[in-house]
Amino acid sequence: MGLKDSHHIGRIVIDPKDPNTVYVAALGHLYTPNDERGVYKTVDGGKTWTKSLEVKADGRMVGAATL
User: Fold this and answer.
1) Is 21 exposed, middle or buried (0-12, 13-18, 19+ CB in 10 A)?
2) Most buried among 7, 35, 48, 63, using CB within 10 Å?
3) Do residues 2 and 48 touch, judged by C-beta distance below 8 A?
4) Per-residue pLDDT tens over the stretch 34-45
5) How many other C-beta atoms are found inside a 10 Å radius of the C-beta of residue 12?
6) How deeply is 33 buried, as exposed, middle or buried, from its count of CB atoms within 10 A (0-12, 13-18, 19+)?
7) Cα(13)–Cα(67) distance, integer angstroms
8) 29: pLDDT confidence band, cut at 50, 70 and 90?
């Protein structure tokens, strides 16, 4: 659910005490620029997402592969 433009997900971690809390490492589009890269967190089972980590290199977003 959500993160429709992330395309590639490196890792998903679900909180064992609360299945509505989920962390995602988003790689984004592999060969084109994409703003939906980084680490995201949801506390409502994927209805809404907050970007927890954003990294830019040379003005371009960097994807996350693992958590």
Assistant:
1) middle
2) 63
3) yes
4) 888 999 999 999
5) 12
6) exposed
7) 8
8) confident
Query: pTM score > 0.70 for this model?
Result: yes
User: Which amino acid, one-letter code, is at 63?
Assistant: G
- How far apart CA 31 and CA 8 sit, in angstroms, is 11
In this structure, are residues 67 and 50 in contact, taking their beta carbons and an 8 Å threshold?
A: no
The count of other CB atoms within 10 Å of the CB of residue 51 is 14
With 0-12 / 13-18 / 19 or more C-beta atoms within 10 angstroms meaning exposed / middle / buried, residue 22 is buried
Q: How many residues does the chain have?
A: 67
Question: Which residues neighbour 4 within 8 Å (Cβ) at sequence distance 6 or greater?
Answer: none
Amino acid at 50: T
